Amino acid sequence: MSNSPRENLNHSQASAKKLRSELRAKRRSLSSGFQSRASNAASRQLLKRGSRSAGAIRRAKSAAIYLPAFGEISPLPLLLPLSKRGVAIYVPVTFGVRMRFIKLSVSAIKRLRLRRHPLGMPAVAGRGTRSVNQFDLVVVPLVAFDSAGNRLGMGGGFYDRALAGAKSTLKLGYAYDFQWVSALRVNSWDVKLDGVVTQNTMTTFREFARLCI
Question: Rounded to an integer, what distance in angstroms lies between the CA atom of residue 59 and that of residue 123?
Answer without folding.
Answer: 29
